[in-house]
């Protein structure tokens, strides 16, 4: 685990609003950001149960799949990834995420999108146990009670100066941990990467307070969707601040926060902390898609 630090964003905002980003993306070279936090206690639990195999779920460019593969190898555990989309079976070599996971020992089972929707069904899990034997199940995106416990460790004493803490939301685990560990004077704002309002119920399963709000205006059309405006924003932010942002989660959240500042959403003198949840491994895959669409690629280094 590498030390995480808070980096000031040197942009002059109206009303004396200040912006700081917590560089959780630097916590580990391959298990970055919230994936490190979510897996921490799940890996300990797997070992406590004497399990030697992790099984989990994800899509073609899943940060979670890449993280579980590497973390499993690092901890001496076998890993199995149930991958959404049976058409990906013969495309591993051209998919940076799946190639990385395979190189780190993960075995794949490719299933149709219809079958993938059954991933929480007991009968589907039993079928997997019959095929692969005993395993420790890590949910899609990694969110469970142990994941939330890990995410409760993101905020530290030095973060008590912030009025607002903002993060992207996928499965709801990260924001739940932030909600539970926030101080009474802090408001947690979540920026969903997916369309739909089902996340509120998911978060309420784990969150113990009401100090939070979801802002659903910045998903750019839905999960994995991206346009020229977002690409140009992410690249300009990198040029100015030397902070790479992923286009699925953190990039959209940062775009949203800065847009809200320009619309005077935040009171005067607000101190805002942005949580960088990592996800940078997916940029290689996204850039392949952007080249195919003849759009500019995302920058992650000078």
UniProtKB/TrEMBL annotation:
UniProt keyword list: Pyridoxal phosphate
UniProt name for this protein: Pyridoxal-phosphate dependent enzyme
InterPro entries, alphabetized: ACCD_DCysDesulf, TrpB-like_PALP, TrpB-like_PALP_sf
A Pfam family per the record: PALP
Keyword hit for Transmembrane helix: no
Cofactor: pyridoxal 5'-phosphate
Sequence ranges assigned to domain Tryptophan synthase beta chain-like PALP in this UniProt record: 16-278
Family of this protein: Belongs to the ACC deaminase/D-cysteine desulfhydrase family.
